[in-house]
Design brief:
Number of strands: 0
Helix content: over 70%
Shape: elongated
Largest sheet: none
Radius of gyration: 18 Å
Order of helices and strands: HHHH
């Protein structure tokens, strides 16, 4: 069986991914902290962010596993996509109905989107780094 060569991500891409993730999450949380909304609303948006991050990473892992021939059940794959789409819908519905300025709604939407994308990039970088390390270990053992 032929094994695909996996290149390690560059340090610049790893740094950019982590920086984006930290900025996105921090901005979202600071926005919630400073928002003039009830505590239960803050909790809702925070939970949607955490749910979305976990779901997006699950989708990335499931897709990558399938590409690498690692078995993934259709149930898990479907649930991962369902959870990701649901988190986005929950954010959109929450913002649509929130009594916030349009600029605040846009801020939360963009911080959420940045966080999800960055979480996927960090997960991909982590996986690529580990795969690259194991390939290099195998090469040195031979």
């Amino acid at each position: 069986m032929e094994q695909k060569q996996t290149l390690a991500p560059s340090p610049a891409f790893i740094a950019a991914s982590w920086t984006s993730l930290i900025i996105g999450i921090t901005a979202f949380i600071i926005g919630l902290w400073n928002a003039d909304i009830q505590l239960n609303e803050k909790g809702y948006y925070f939970t949607v962010l955490l749910f979305g991050l976990f779901a997006a990473i699950s989708v990335q892992k499931a897709v990558r596993d399938q590409l690498e021939g690692i078995p993934v059940t259709n149930l898990y794959y479907g649930i991962a996509w369902f959870a990701t789409i649901t988190s986005i819908i929950l954010l959109v519905v929450g913002l649509w109905n929130a009594e916030l300025e349009r600029s605040e709604k846009g801020f939360y939407a963009m911080a959420f989107t940045l966080s999800l994308f960055a979480a996927i990039a960090v997960q991909k970088n982590t996986r690529d780094s580990k795969a690259s390390e194991s390939i290099h270990k195998e090469e040195h053992q031979q």
